[in-house]
Amino acid sequence: VRPVKIAMEMLERGIQRQEAVSELREHYLVSEEKAELLLNIAKRESDILKKADSDTISLYIGIPFCPSRCLYCSFTSYSISGYRHLVESYLEALKLELSALNDIINEKAYRIQNIYIGGGTPTSLDAASLRDLLHFIEYSFNLANLEEFTLEAGRPDSIDPDKLKAIKNSKVNRISINPQTMNDSVLKIIGRKHTVLEVLQAFNLAREMGFENINMDIIAGLPGESIEMFEKSLREISFLKPESLTVHTMAVKRASRLKEEVENYCLTTENEVSEMVKMAQDYASSMGMHPYYLYRQKDMLGNLENIGYSKPGFESIYNIQIMEERQTIIAAGAGAVTKVVYPEENRIERAFNVKDVEEYIRRVDEMIERKRALL
Length: 375
Description:
Blueprint: H1 4-12, H2 17-26, H3 32-49, E1 56-63, E2 65-66, E3 78-79, H4 80-108, E4 111-119, H5 127-140, E5 148-154, H6 161-168, E6 174-177, H7 184-189, H8 196-208, E7 214-220, H9 227-240, E8 244-249, H10 257-260, H11 270-286, E9 290-295, E10 306-310, H12 317-324, E11 329-332, E12 337-342, E13 347-352, H13 357-362, H14 364-374
Parallel strand pairs: 1-4, 1-11, 2-3, 4-5, 5-6, 6-7, 7-8
Antiparallel strand pairs: 8-10, 9-10, 12-13
Helix pairs in contact: 1-3, 2-3, 4-5, 4-14, 5-6, 9-11
């Protein structure tokens, strides 16, 4: 799942690069190209991880609502149209949990290095709710040491000028606008309720409003997408010039609709998805980006991986921390998982929040106590 950890440990043990390549090839059966990739990413991550002190943490905040559920999705995510009556109650419960976490953070004298608001799609909230949540976060927590504040704008059909204005007027300094594909026919297959034109409009609007750190996600191997169509997606993204690009390989996840209906879809072959991933690497390089984090999941096509690329200086610190597990991440919201890291013991303890929105609202005090006991 986290193969860069292996390469990182080799570097930390002082193993020379060529010896590390040989061990990765002979012991882990990794190709020379992948071994070099792992070591390059490990070196890049190591330089960033060194900058974080032992008392810094990351804060994750989950918004489990989306405009619609994608074919491949297995995240904690509920249709905003069907759950709108619970949004206010959910946000009140979330604020209650965040207030308790702030008390714990102050008691432990932690310093917040990164905040990540994910989901779901945080921008499925209306502009007033989003503005109120961001205001609450900024006035509740001590953010004097904050380096990175990411908000997943995610779905272009959830973005409008009022929401972008609310984000721009906050301390958020990194957003994601995620097309997954730039082909309308494929968007329809995967259950996305937006068009390529809406992706372009959302991205250009964000640029006009002054956002200077935008990530985009793309998926290699989506049902119905040929190699030529995938290259069209990469070409259109390259015209937009985002600061970072995350290239996911299609995974048939256990809790996804795709898993339940897989016989109805023609999945991309191993050779095709491998060619797509290599093509994405070439396009990222042509955009001046380098790979800076990598992870794998079960049931990925071609047994491949997800790779984050960025321009120098735009690497997401949070993404590196969550993958390398060197920093405690305190998480709030339905389905959120808190991970407390004990580096001296090479040990991690976790506290899980319930996934169901109604259960979370009803049992938020229990979620707080789980983290209080752990921390």
